Task: structure prediction
Amino acid sequence: MNGDLTKLRDANSDELRIAGSVVTLADLNGRLGGVRRLVVRPKAVVTPSARDELRERRIDLVFEAVPTAKKQNGDAVSAVSSATPKDLTIIAARTRTSPQEIASAIKSTDLRIDCRSTDCLIETSDRTAESASKVNAVVVIVTAHTAAALCLANRKQGVRAVLVSDADEFLRDADAVGANVIVVSPKKFPFYQLKRIVERFASCDARKCPPVFRDRLN
Result:
């Protein structure tokens, strides 16, 4: 379970609150008896299996509102300033999968997407390090050669790459190390799932390296 994931529920309440950034089916197991509403963070990612469980039990999924602050003149404004658009780099390495096709399928308007293709995994790691060094940037490496790509990327300063082995659970791994890079195989996931993985990774807030790992992973 995520270290920041907490469950808050009054004894007489039909509302369950989960404060984690990712909510999976495992987080819900054994906790939904008598629950009618699940409340999560404004930008929380709720996995498809968790959503299916809520739907089957007819439990409402509620995202908390973004808190507001007051201007000096009394007008209410968002407490969160408008975020800088995130830079997403999609690198297709030694694969026929088109990064442009993935990018065109992503609906988010808050992303600046750079698509690259290469036949060299070493070049891939160099480009990954260059792109990941930017502020508010993430990189997705699409390749069937996942082991080599992962090892080469993680040799680079400032790169924290994780392998996508499960479409529902990979964000938990990303959160654990503050990943700014994911490596995903187009042979393991069909295109619709691949697109969704990229979209979900890029849509979350920028991850910071956990303090306990900062000396080794930064």
